[in-house]
Amino acid sequence: MKKPKTYGSGDIYTGEMFKSNVFKLQMDELLEDCAFKHGKREKEAEGVLHTLKSIIEKIPDREPLSIGDAERNLAKFSKIAVPFPNPGPPSDAQYKLQYSRPSNINVVGSYALKVASRLGSELVIDLVVKMPASLFQEKDYMNHRYFNKRAYYLACLAAGIKNSSLKDGKFILHYDLLNGNYLQPTVIVQSSSESQNGHNAKARWKIQIIPVVEDSVFATNKTMPDKNCIRPKATANEVTSLPPTPFYNASLRSDSCFSGYLRLLHDASKSCDSFKDACILGSVWLRQRGFSSEIQSGGFGNFEWAATMALLLTGGGPKGKPRLSSGYSSYQLFKAQLQFLEEVTLTKKAVNIGQEIISAPKDNQDPVLFDGERMMNILFKMSPWSYELLKQEAEATVASLGESAFDQFESTFITRADHPLLRQDCLIQLPVQTLLSSSRLDRDEESIMLACRKLFRVLKRGLSDRVSCVAVFVPQTKPWDVKKKMTGLDLSENVTIGLTYRPENSSRTVDHGPTAEEKKEAAAFRQFWGEKAELRRFKDGSILESLVWSTKESNKSIVEQIVRYVIARHFNDDLSEAMVVVGDQVSSMIPSGASTSGAFQPMMGAFTELEQDIRSLEDLPLTVRELVAASPSLSYSSLDIPGSSRSGTPPADVVLQFEGSSRWPDDLAAIQRTKIAFLLRVGDLLEEMNASRYSCQLGLENSHSEILNQAFLDIRSSSASATFRLRIHCDREQSLLSSVLDTKAAKPLPGTGPQITQSDRDAAAAALRAYKRDFLSRPAHTAACRAIATRFPAYTPTVRLLKKWFSSHLLAPHFPDELIELFATLTFTRPEPWTTPSSPSTGFFRTIAFLARWDWRQEPLVVDFAGEEDSKMTSAEVKETMMKYEAWRRIDPSMNRVAMFAASSAVSDGAMWTDGRPARVVAGRMTALARAAAAAIKEKGVEVGLHPEMLFSSALQDYDFVLRLDPSVTRKEKGDKLKAKFKNLELAAEGAGFSMKGSVDPAQSFLEGLQYTYGDAVVLFYGGRGSSVIAGLWNPAHLESRKLKVRMGYSSLPVAKGEEAEVKMNRDAILAEMARLGGDMVKKVELMK
Amino acid sequence: MVAPKKARQDALASKLPIQVSGYTVLPLTLPPLSSFPKKTTHYLYLRPHAPKVPDEETPKSLFLVNFPIDATEDNLRKLFSREVLGGSRVKSVIFEDLRDAGNARKKLMNELRELEEESLGPKKGQGKKRKRRGQPEEEDSARQQDGSEGLNLGDTEGELPTVWDREILRSGSSAVVVFVDKISADAALKAARRIAKKGEEVIWRGEGEALGLRRYQNHHELSHPPKHTLQSSVNSYLAAFSRVESLRTQIAKRNFGVPDEDGFVTVSKGGRSGVASMARAEKTKERHEERTEKRVGDGFYRFQLREERKKREGELVRKFEEDRERVEKMRKSGKRRKVEM
């Protein structure tokens, strides 16, 4: 589509055709990036194509020879092996092998059609060499005869190229498999190593030589999917009872259809303008999801995408009408094709395009999209599991494209979505060798697929609705030397199974089977489950076959227990024992281990109780409007389980608001004093009401400014052995503070006291921010997080892991809880390109991947908490946050105040949590750490096995200095220690009915003191409660010497600089000061650099 | 306390300037600690105090910059009383970043006093003292301290309890040190010059209340004061506050409709019922706005519809332009997201 000249058509433009302006513009750029370009490597490769063509045309014919002679000849004279596919020609084969000049040599595939996306480092060009029909007999379609002849022909080609390039040694030859199909070996030609690794390593290309056959050589009715073409010797004549061999048949058929499909795609791109662009979009989409034509990568790649689309442009709709229209835009084609993949279940009902009607074979679950014109199932390389995965991906993308508030371009095309640890909730590895031996199969390519089919069937049945998708990944094949025969399987590799959970079912403990009366079903159930099946009577009187699982006896998840059980039952114990679950070890990093939100229940209960008790207080001068939570420990989101014994968890903030009253004074300081009076009253009344449950104590805060909240009431509830910190919300504060800010324009209202200075105004602005944060935003955010935690069981462990990660990297003082909760929530409410994660490890890995990817300098974070479709953020709301973000960037372009901008549907002010912290340099450090972690997950995650500790430790070498604190002070269980050390304190605490335990963290106070004292001269890092290290960096902006000013903000020393003396930061004296301030808490100050 | 030779040589060898931007440099040696066993030097900068508006204290004062964070009035007093620094006597120290604790109470007391005066005699044409702009902060705080004398509440009554037994300064902060007389001030400055020149060693002792864990424990204790202390503090503050309120109402009532010296009558609402509270004033304003909104709603006039449509069309064009610009900007900044490999 061209850009419209007039803007009048703007609404059409943004409508169905291209989703939105931005989407379309981004798509244009993507297509430009990916479109075919005739560059240096293309020129070089085309030169080679010409050379190869002339070489092949000059290869001399070879006389028919018996198989043994032919093989010996090639080995002797050319050192070339013949890559016969398994099982290889029988020793008593009657047919002869022969080579004669090809009838045609042609370039096909995406390169010929110019629909290859330039992405990826390598340029692959398919060169088909048509074998003359004279080499074949009518019956060669049977028993691998065609494939054996083809293999010999290929070896002769390899020998010919090798001989002719002997002199200059220009090419390197390898055997490979066409799309990983062991029946179709190919020769790969690459330029020799010098230029490959040398200066023009960028110009990498390879040419794949594919021997094919004339379309007319074999009768198409013999290779229909329901026919058998491999006859066991003894029963060579009994055709009827043999099982069909669809894969073999289609492989043979595909060798005859190369030019047919070239024509089909060419015609489609001629008749439909957007066809090529839609192909490129598809190829990018598939690539990001790890799909390709390789059998091992799903068997659905660029060719299948293009061919499906071309077929759907001619049929596939109702009454044989085209499903797609050639008038569609590229985006419409792309989306409609995904919708086709999502909606139509090709495994249940075959889709036929053209006249020929076939039905899908009943017992196997292979998808069928039958091209009646060329008589082939174009999805023959797909397996049931890869089809299931493709469907799931298509579904996720179609759903995300339907959303209007967020531009889903990035998740659709940009983000790499194929990493198994990020994509699946659970990964299981099985060694190939054990898998084959346990299913008593040969060690060849076909048996691994057979074993996987059985595995898939067993797991599907065993896990039923606990999972939405079972994906099986078999090892990739690798090219091998032309001197060697087909190498077959690498037995040291693993088969990987990826499970996507259905969160609502995945941890169900009881499975119901058929009733005892249904004899047949019950028998099948027993047959499948063996001794695990038991007959039970349930409450409603029904007697059912059932299975009971439990997490009490083992620490393994129920899904893992089931997988192990069914593998042991249907394969054997060896395989069940050799099975490894990858990635979920990271959950062990969650403190106190509990990965369920149940541990938060006592705290939540105590809160409800407190609310009821406060509401029932009768002698309060004002009526209670509400008591709301404003703390992560009341939204299932805190790192530590609140109130867990002995671990000193911080008090949970709660906010009490009374019904509006005009009796509040018109003065900020007086309001604060009144609030203290209220708090004292609430405390007295609570203790009076239930002295055994509550003990209260009033505390002071914000002593530096009297217009900030001055006091809180710590309420210790014996119900959860936890402490609540109650503050009073008075909405008069907001209007009073705003009026201070507004008085510049208007005359102060009578009675507001003296003139207002700039510093008053600054203080009021700060106080207003604090007011909005503590009394409006935090309660709203807490409520939203609590809803998320109830909706997504994996949220709680994910956010706790994430908090652990931030504190392990000493980032705790810079990233407020709320910000980290937003990061985690994003993973759940906007999971694109994946579906919502259901395991802690997946949630965690994805969030880390997001943090590594997020360019906070350029884009705001917008999190939508809403679950229901109608309460989701509208695009207008998103737009508004975008505008706020842009306004912030305009007034603070160097990001001194707000580096990260994080808005949500609960708190639309994106600077609420990030005003002042994290600083730009700290945010940059987070990105660097997240990138390192994401890289480790990607590289080591699956193969080597990931040590979770690795992700949670960072070297102290990166810092300028480190303060090592006395562990006896910082230890979480410090209550006893302190008492022993300071007897008088203990007595004082006892007198007040209170202990210091939990409510104070001297290291935290020390850190805050340092931050107050040194401002932005140093950046300090601390791991939060329990951490005994404070690390620091000097602010590089302050390291240069400069003229002495009155407010430098750091201790300085004079230095001679030319005539004039200047000063610079006195780092040693600062460290000595820190040591003095910390006193006995600081064990050692270490200089790292 | 004359420094050993070695230290002097060190100072000379490093050729530290003895003057910086008109300040005399006074090196203070920080004794090594077990956690940081390195002898370090802190530098204090001194000059005679020279505010824009001098007062009688100015000649007796020095302006000091870059205090150690654990400096207090008390340990500075001790520092200057040492022989090596001329044995001068300090009258007071006014720190720059004095926190404004107790300020509200002071303001309230000032107001109370003024209102009480006013309620006795007729209103004097002059308003309250205006704060002079552009004046160094140390001046302000000095004045505030003066103003807090002679109130009818006790010195700290009505103030919230302090939560730190020892305040810590910001790094690099400054203060005005007022000596008992000019001679002492001069002597201190002279001694500092001598020390800097000769590289003598003066050891800094950050004496005072304990630092370290003890300070935080004390803080914890102090910020949880006993109930009765708080209750009485709050009570006396609120009593003073309501006294101010009632005086204000009284005066306003009395002045209602009474012309001032120039013959003008201040128009104010609520002469009979007292000064309107802010809450009520706001409510009235809201109600008024609501009424206007209702009277001329959307789509009342035809031109409104027309304008609305025009606006919508313009919006579409603008949106498209905006989007294009945004993508253009992404491209130009070279930070466009490339397809992940």
UniProtKB/TrEMBL annotation, chain A:
GO molecular function annotations of the record: RNA binding
Pfam families cross-referenced by the UniProt entry: Nrap, Nrap_D2, Nrap_D3, Nrap_D4, Nrap_D5, Nrap_D6
Family under the similarity heading: Belongs to the NRAP family.
Keywords from the named record: Nucleus, Ribonucleoprotein, Ribosome biogenesis, RNA-binding, rRNA processing
This protein's record includes keyword Nucleus: yes
Name of the protein in its database record: U3 small nucleolar RNA-associated protein 22
GO process annotations (BP): rRNA processing; tRNA export from nucleus
Protein location: Nucleus, Nucleolus
Source organism: Aulographum hederae CBS 113979
Domain Nrap protein, chain residue ranges per copy: 125-271, 274-416, 422-572, 594-789, 792-953, 956-1085
Keyword Iron-sulfur: no
One Gene Ontology term, aspect cellular component: CURI complex
Highest taxon listed in the record's lineage: Eukaryota
TrEMBL record, chain B:
CDD domains (UniProt xref): dRRM_Rrp7p, RRP7_Rrp7p
Residue ranges annotated for the Rrp7 RRM-like N-terminal domain, each copy included: 20-219
Domain of life according to the entry: Eukaryota
Pfam families the record matches: RRM_Rrp7, RRP7
Domain Ribosomal RNA-processing protein 7 C-terminal residues, every copy: 223-337
Segments of skewed composition (Basic residues): 332-341
Basic and acidic residues bias (residue ranges): 322-331
GO biological process: ribosomal small subunit assembly; rRNA processing
Region span, Disordered: 113-158, 322-341
One Gene Ontology cellular component annotation held by this UniProt entry: CURI complex
Stated family: Belongs to the RRP7 family.
UniProt name for this protein: RRM domain-containing protein
